Amino acid sequence: MGRQVCVASAGFSEHASKRSDVNMPELISEAIEDCLKKVPNIGIDDIDAFVNGNMPAFEGSNLPELWMTDWMGARNKPLMRVTTGGTTGGTIAICGYYTVTAGLPGIDTVLAIAFEQQSQGDTALGLASVALGEITIINSLGIPYEQLTRLLSAGAAIGIASYQATNYMRRSKITEEDLARVVVQNRRNAAKTWWTHLKMPDLTIEQVLDTPYISFPLRYGMVCPASDGACAMLFTTEEKAKELVDIPVYVNGVASVAHESAILGFDGSGAGQLDPSEQLEAQKSADLAFSQAGISFPRKEIDYAEVYSPFPNQELMWVEKLGLFETNTASAMYETGVTALNGELPINCSGGVNATNAIGASAMERPAEAALQIMGKAGNQVPKTVHTSLGHGWGGAVNLCTLMVMADEPRRKFK
Amino acid sequence: MPSCFPYHSTRLYETDPTWERPTQFVNDITSGGFQMRAYMENYGVSKEDIAKVAVANHNNAAKNPLALEEAQKANLSVNDVLESDIYADPVTELMVAPLGDCIAALLLAPEQQALKITNKPVWITGVGWNQETYYLGDRDLSQSKSMELATKMAYNTADIGDPKNEIDLAEIHTQYAHEELILSEALGLADNGKGNLLTDKNCINPSGGAFGGNSPCATGLIRVIEAVKQLRGEAGEYQVIDAKKAVATGQIGMCAQSNIVWVLEKGGA
After folding, report:
1. CA A109 to CA A409: how far, in whole Å?
2. Is the N end or the C end of chain B the one with fewer CB atoms within 10 Å?
């Protein structure tokens, strides 16, 4: 094991559907500024290395970190780009952690930056090359591949999420109303967080159920928006973090696990025989990260969770798969207020991905918010003291999961 | 050519979208020409010296069974290189690493496990990575600042003080022949402007380097693997005698804006 790593700060840019007032470098510099503002004793010159990434070419820019170098302050400094689809942000955070924990000489403080400016490109087209629903079946109905990619019902994220949602609904016997309840909680929470996109303080379940279907059971009102935004996290050593902030957040466990592609069944990418609501990779990554962090009973030991859920059924799935609730009980927890801001285990108090989705940044905004909740600096701070939290990311072809488990004290083996 | 995507149009999307992409004058092809011209004029190096590098790489590729078939040119002459079509003046077609499809993989393990797996381990003693500013006008193209800084970082960990004597061979990711000179100088293997003195020693890119097939995202890893083959004594016809320490590099960006260096050392008996 390498050095103990801490999160010293995290920052966001303002998110919106079209941030046409800024370009990509200006967008990320907003997040960097917000991140460094919280640690007054550190400047951009004190950063030893950078990690950066977004979805590959969604904005029509290939390797944008090359021409952004100077805007990030990364000139003549080590910089690494990582991009892993939906989990990009989570992978960047983990890469930031690895860069510090490796203990290379002269590299103590690392700035990890994730961003997406979807208004500059065509997200649905980009996603169509990644995520496509039951290709082989639709092909066998006589719809050629070229036309298929233009059909929302087959392509992009909703095409695959609807299969996942119906499978989960069948297993857990939940209704559309249960899905809408998750959406309402998220968007009301988002209204209390400054940087989020869809702020709906007065949203009701009826209003959500009154919107048309995009692909059963997912309605227009249940689906995440496409946002422009950026997120930055500052990773450093335990010693430096103690100097910089009152409550350093210790990164005690990280995991990034892939499973067989659950849905595609096209072009050799997976058998297409798996239940997309099974998500073995979430269970495996939870096992891995919790064992590193010395957490035996996540249900009791985790105080706060940010999970990656563009669609409400996923939020219910993840909290179960990550071991926070018993199988098929998640929707009851939302109904009884366990997951609310003042509940026992608050989930996604920033509004989550369901309210703000700047794709490349989304999976980093989860650990970033989870860290800020421990520090007591979150926009929508939970009233209880948060000792242990987790940030989760999800993506790939419905088969990739990243996880970062954080606490206000070092992991047990370091004590 | 990589078979499933148009390489140069993809690389055009690497350029600044506001100023450079619309005009397309500055791109990965023309920047190669700027870089070679800057190097030649700054150090008084001739086209022939750079053509010799291309010849050496193609000759080496002929000994490497994994190199692209069209890159295996055992009988290439300096004149052939100089008289091939202009790519981006003064770079000619045969001074460019030919594109190809490739997959590479590497197995890493911590020290104790590695010794259980193999009796010929190769230790990674240093890594360094760095990137310089994007705008070509802000850079001295006859040198590589990012490679110098990455090298400093890697040599610091690997405890290498005198690279000219300590490093036995280098596998360098080059897009063009002249980059082999610029980057080997930045690696401290030769004085500035004197990189061509290494060409005849055959210690740079003995496998043919990226001239044996440049599949952009895999080329850096292939360099690491070729260096590992040398250190394990498995390089066959292009084996460097008594190789103990090697460097391998990867790059991306116009004029090698971003560079990565690995320092590798022979382990085992």
Report:
1. 19
2. C
